[in-house]
Amino acid sequence: MDKKKIYYLFSALLLALIIILVFVFLQSTITYLIDLFLHLDVHLNELILQYGAVTYIILFLVIFAETGLVVTPFLPGDSLLFAAGTFAAIGSFDVALLFILLCIAAILGDTVNYWIGHYIGPKVFHKETKFIKKEYLVRTHNFFEKHGGKTIIIARFIPIIRTFAPFVAGVGAMTYSKFILYNITGGTVWVAMFVFGGYYFGNIRVVKNNFSIVIVVIILISVLPGVIEYFRHRSSKKNK
Q1: How far apart are the C-alpha atoms of 237 and 240, rounded to whole Å?
Q2: What local confidence, expressed as pLDDT, does residue 30 receive?
Q3: Is residue 11 one of the residues assigned to a domain?
Q4: In the chain, what is the straight-line distance between the N-terminal and C-terminal CA atoms, in Å?
Q5: CA 150 – CA 157 distance, rounded (Å)
Q6: Cα–Cα distance between 144 and 157 in angstroms, integer?
Q7: Does residue 21 lie within any of the structural domains?
Q8: Among candidates 153, 159, 216, which has minimal Cα distance to 187?
């Protein structure tokens, strides 16, 4: 084999190795980022250490997306608010600023979701789409039938329904003047309950001295809605 062929063979092998290394790096990075994004409540400490004050913006965007976009109902909500409150207790956030920003994010998110529902909702209800589960829309619509306008407030405390309630309201379940009142009330109460709940929990002496307790509680809060929904679903099946 002449030198030219050896050179081309070596170059091809080197290129293949580089491509494999880049692929492995990108795959691990993307996996890490997805895990960080979906479990932001659990990874909040490392986010604060890495980004500092920018974390306020990240929290704002996550709460906005969780309440404002029907394609992201899987994002953390309750547990993230509670986690942010507990870290405010140890001085990582200003609790007043945190409360105001996240209230704006929650209210603005629902408002955007309402108008998205107003403009594209009727089409979604009558056909299947890749990004929006019709099952969730039907469940939320049934929730509206049962609870009326109060759905916008009650739904704040129910994952999935929380994301789809303003969307369904925009389809025609509620006028905007009525919706915005429920939206502001529900958003403020929801954020206040979890942020200040986390803040006071984080200020308990035992918790301050053993902050690992916070992580355990955050994990429990994040899985609790799924457990409740599972048993509620089983119960409704039995009743049928």
Answers
A1: 5
A2: 47
A3: no
A4: 77
A5: 12
A6: 15
A7: no
A8: 153
Q: Which domain holds residue 179?
A: 40-239
Residues 6+ apart with CB under 8 A from 69: 109, 112, 113, 116, 163
Q: What is the pLDDT of residue 41?
A: 55
Low-confidence residues in the chain, pLDDT < 70: 1-43, 121-122, 124-134, 173, 211-212, 214-216, 218-219, 221-240
Instruction: Count other C-beta atoms under 10 Å from residue 184's C-beta.
Output: 16
pLDDT of residue 165: 86
Q: What residue type is assigned to position 215 of the chain?
A: I
CB-based burial, 208-240: b 16+ in 10 Å, e otherwise: eeeeebbeebbeebbeebeeeeeeeeeeeeeee
DSSP class of residue 40? Answer: T
Q: Specify if 28 maps to a domain.
A: no
7 within some domain: no
pTM of the predicted model as reported, rounded to 2 decimal places: 0.73
* Beta carbons of 128 and 85 less than 8 angstroms apart: no
Tokens of 62: 């996550």
For residues 93 and 84, is the Cβ–Cβ distance under 8 A?
yes
DSSP for 158-173 reads STTHHHHHHHHIIIII
The total of structural domains in the chain comes to 1
